[in-house]
């Protein structure tokens, strides 16, 4: 099986890949509940997390994945846990969650209360454990995109009365974060982002306008901030972005193809690859991939759903990969699930066995396509 290939700026392309989060095990759920109730210490919780992360890393290796993650087993949320530990950011309980279709998350939000910076972030230690456990496999780590602090957070205007200063500081904060993870040994970092999917949705853009927010302004500022953060990163640090339409208890938020943002993202964002959701009609067609104008840009097709356990037809997936080659060469494509299996600790509605079967399915299909 061909698992990687050399390119100019993106030295490692994994033909079978994954977005990152995995279903929390019963041991993790029990230990986290015990910690909340004060029955065990934070050190005892971390011991359980270490044990379970080691187990799932071994399972990923067994399946045939070359890049392994910690499943985000130390987090409750895919984004808030990381953002709350940036200098100048605080988490708080809102009383309301994020509304998905027919589901609502538990209460949580973030706010910027002081000047932004990146300091002794606890997830650096989380990565170091994964890196050690990964051995000769690549340790892939996931963090929210800088866009998410602005999109999901409140900004104290007494601290940042000017947007330009806020976005400049946000970019510098993430530039420091990228370097810190690199210094810890990270060579594969993924930025997770739901804001760009909202900017693909006419319904969500209408809601933004109703709140006084110009979607075109967000496109401009988010792209500018990302490129500033990514500038001057080490040449061997592979940074990708996952664009998500929402993933909570197998539900979703936004719909719409990539056309409204494709030219900006694929043509002007200085990144090594995109993980794109393509598991249902809400994602639209492959036509926006015509804006991929760099031969070193990897496009990871999320054609296998993480929301339900039934396995897709191999032939259907292969046919869709072939359809995508009308716009991007096969050597620039890879395959993955469309999202993680547990963007929050509650997880999607499928079993752990079905999760592993999905990932094995991805590996098997990739092995057939990229021989």
UniProtKB/TrEMBL annotation:
InterPro entries listed in its UniProt record: Met_Synth_C/arc (IPR002629), UROD/MetE-like_sf (IPR038071)
Claim: Methyltransferase is one of the keywords in the record: yes
Protein name: 5-methyltetrahydropteroyltriglutamate--homocysteine methyltransferase
Naturally occurring in which organism (per UniProt): Planococcus lenghuensis
Domain named Cobalamin-independent methionine synthase MetE C-terminal/archaeal: residues: 19-366
A Pfam family per the record: Meth_synt_2
Keyword Oxidoreductase listed: no
Keywords: Methyltransferase, Transferase
Domain of life: Bacteria
Gene3D superfamilies for this protein: 3.20.20.210
Stored SUPFAM superfamilies: UROD/MetE-like (SSF51726)
Record-level GO BP terms: methionine biosynthetic process; methylation
GO molecular-function terms, A-Z: 5-methyltetrahydropteroyltriglutamate-homocysteine S-methyltransferase activity; zinc ion binding
């Amino acid at each position: 099986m061909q698992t990687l290939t050399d390119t100019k700026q993106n030295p490692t392309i994994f033909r079978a890949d994954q977005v990152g989060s995995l279903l929390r095990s019963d041991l993790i759920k029990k230990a986290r509940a015990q910690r909340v109730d004060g029955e065990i210490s934070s050190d005892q919780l971390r011991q359980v997390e270490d044990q379970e992360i080691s187990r799932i890393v071994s399972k990923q290796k067994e399946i045939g994945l070359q890049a392994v993650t910690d499943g985000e087993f130390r987090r409750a949320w895919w984004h808030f846990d990381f953002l709350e530990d940036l200098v100048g950011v605080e988490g708080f309980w809102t009383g309301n969650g994020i509304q998905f279709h027919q589901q609502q998350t538990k209460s949580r939000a973030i706010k910027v209360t002081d000047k932004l910076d990146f300091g002794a972030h606890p997830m650096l230690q989380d990565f170091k454990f994964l890196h050690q456990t990964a051995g000769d496999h690549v340790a892939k780590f996931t963090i929210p995109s800088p866009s998410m602090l602005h999109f999901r957070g409140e900004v104290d205007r007494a601290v940042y009365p000017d947007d330009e200063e806020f976005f400049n500081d946000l970019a510098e904060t993430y530039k420091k974060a990228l370097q810190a993870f690199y210094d810890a040994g990270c060579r594969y970092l993924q930025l997770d982002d739901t804001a760009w999917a909202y900017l693909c949705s006419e319904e969500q853009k209408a809601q933004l306008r109703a709140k006084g927010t110009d979607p075109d302004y967000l496109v401009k500022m988010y792209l500018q901030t990302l490129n500033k953060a990514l500038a001057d990163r080490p040449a061997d640090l592979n940074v990708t972005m996952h664009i998500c339409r929402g993933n909570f208890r197998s539900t979703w938020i936004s719909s719409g193809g990539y056309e409204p943002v494709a030219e900006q993202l694929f043509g002007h964002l200085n990144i090594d690859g995109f993980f794109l959701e393509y598991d249902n009609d809400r994602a639209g067609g492959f036509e926006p991939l015509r804006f991929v104008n760099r031969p070193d840009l990897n496009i990871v097709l999320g054609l296998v759903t993480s929301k339900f356990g039934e396995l897709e037809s191999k032939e259907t997936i292969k046919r869709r990969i072939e359809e995508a080659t009308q716009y991007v060469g096969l050597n620039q494509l890879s395959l993955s699930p469309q999202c993680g299996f547990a963007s929050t600790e509650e997880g999607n509605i499928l079993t752990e066995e079905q999760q592993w079967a999905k990932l094995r399915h991805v590996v098997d299909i990739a092995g057939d396509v990229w021989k």
